Amino acid sequence: METKKVDVAIIGTGTAGMGAYREASKTTDSIALIESGLYGTTCARIGCMPSKLLIAAAEAAHNVEKAHKFGVNAQITNIDGKAVMNRIKSERDRFVGFVLEAVESFNPDHRLKGYAKFINDNTLQIDDKLIIEAKSIVIATGSSPAIPPIFQDVTDRLIINDDVFEWDDLPGSVALFGPGVIGLELGQALHRLGVDVKIFGRGGLVGPLSDPAILEYATKTFQEEFYINPDADVTSIKQIGDKVEITYRDFDGTCVTDSFDYVLATTGRTPNVKNLGLENTSLPLDERGVPIFDQFTTQIGDHPVFIVGDANNDKPLLHEAADEGRIAGKNAGHYPDVRAGKRSSSLGIVFSDPGIATIGRSYSSLAKGCFATGEVSFEGQGRSRTMLVNKGLMHVYGEYGTGLLLGAEIFGPRAEHLAHLLAWAHQQRMTISEILEMPFYHPVIEEGLRTALRDLNNKLQLGSKPPKRSIDCGPGA
User: Fold this and answer.
1) DSSP 121
2) What is the 3-state secondary structure of 32-79?
3) Whether the Cβ atoms of residue 447 and residue 470 lie closer than 8 Å to each other
4) Cα(296)–Cα(18) distance, rounded to whole angstroms?
5) 15 and 110 part of one domain
């Protein structure tokens, strides 16, 4: 078997792996970039981009449905499921094409196809054809959907979110399990495109929310639009022919059996580390077999191995994977000179309607009594009402004494944009008073953010009590 020596070996060519490659390439030309599957990131193939294409189609349908509220008499005569899916797959393939172009631009002498397995901390075997001896190694193998045993009696009618984007047409009905980020986005979008959707969860959680007031508000709002039970009592799931029968207790306690075309499991993801041969290394592992690493250096213990992106199961978000890839690539290239990299403020977004966002510290992570909460309801917010998107609640958290912005949880209109403003302010370690010195145009939804910040500043005893209504032109704040 051939042996090849390199400075850096990178396992995986997703977002994190490509980031690591680009950074390591600045230091050395001795690199092995290893991929066992198809090129193309999770984001482009089965994640961020195809899901947003589905959501965009759903938004178009929803806008027509509510047009009569503006006095515009429009109606949906038909939703062409085949056309919807054709556009999604076509645009998805376009995004994947850009990724493939990027990979093709990498040095072909660096690219290797095959499955990598550790022989020891510094050595990999690629299938049965090649041994790679590396001074440092980056694990960027991504993750896979986790399928709980509750679905063991469902065969060909059980799907994961990856499968949705291979449909040629929209189905008639879907039972979705897991009201997390992926489940909420797909579930609501499918509902708005005419699919009969029921969403079942466990533990009462919806998306990434941990603030009890916002969680309650969001749950109630979603339930007004479609069936969602975040703490469902499901007693039976079985496939009968080409249908899946699900028996569960409804909100009033009655036992109900419904039939669905598909069961869609969005019940979390598992890091792809199981078959890497980590048992052949001295790397420290947690109880799940995932390497224990430093989130600022991405290094596993004091070993010449780094782990990034979804593979480390820390922050499975594209921008976090990109940051981790750059940090790991730089450290791998300079090993053993390992340095902490700069991490961004925490930012998470759910592209539901209303949207959900978390910024900085979550409510559940804050110490009781050490922070105050500023609040705004979007129900009476001026710009939100003009556009008939006036549903939502925002809480911003600030630290007593310093007045620093600690974090926020949002359920409301344009949450993705409000979240970025707050994330930027949080990363700059701005105080609530400093943020309030920034310009707020009128009339914009961001005036709702100003209301919450004014409320928070007052509760921190750093500002006067805000007016009940905006003192500007109309109820903007």
Assistant:
1) T
2) EEEECCCCCCHHHHCCHHHHHHHHHHHHHHHHHHCHHHHCCCCCCCCC
3) yes
4) 19
5) yes
Does some domain include residue 340?
no
Are 122 and 166 contained in the same domain? no
d(CA 145, CA 265): 8
Task: Answer whether 298's CB lies under 8 Å from 331's CB.
Answer: yes
C-alpha–C-alpha distance, residues 411 and 392, integer Å: 5
Calpha distance 433→463 (Å, rounded): 8
Residue type at position 109: D
Domain shared by 309 and 231, yes or no: no
Average pLDDT per 10 consecutive residues for the chain, totaling 477 residues = 95 93 96 86 75 95 95 93 95 85 89 96 95 98 90 92 93 97 96 98 96 98 98 96 96 96 93 95 94 96 96 81 93 96 93 97 90 96 95 98 97 97 97 96 95 96 74 51
Instruction: Count structural domains, the chain.
Output: 3
The structure tokens listed for 294 are 């430093």
Residues with Cβ within 8 Å of residue 326, at least 6 apart in sequence: 19, 20, 22, 23, 341
CATH code for position 167: 3.50.50.60
- Retrieve residue 470's tokens: 């905006």
Q: What is the pLDDT of residue 24?
A: 97
Cβ–Cβ < 8 Å for 93, 181: no
Q: Please check whether residues 138 and 277 belong to one and the same domain.
A: yes
Strands, sheet with 243-249, edge to edge from the N-terminal-most edge strand:
233-240, 243-249, 255-260
Residue 470, pLDDT score: 55
**pLDDT for the residue 103:** 83
How does 169-186 read in b/e, with b if 16+ C-beta sit within 10 Å?
Answer: ebbebbbbbbbbbbbbbb
Same domain membership, residue 274 and residue 141 = yes
Same domain, 141 and 276: yes
Same domain, residue pair 95 and 228: no
What is the reported pLDDT for 134? 98
Q: Which domain holds residue 189?
A: 149-267
H/E run at residue 359: strand 355-360
Closest CA to 175 of 242, 260, 233: 260
Same domain (yes/no): 138, 18: yes
Q: Which among 197, 256, 261 has a CA at the least distance from the CA of 227?
A: 197
pLDDT of residue 407: 98
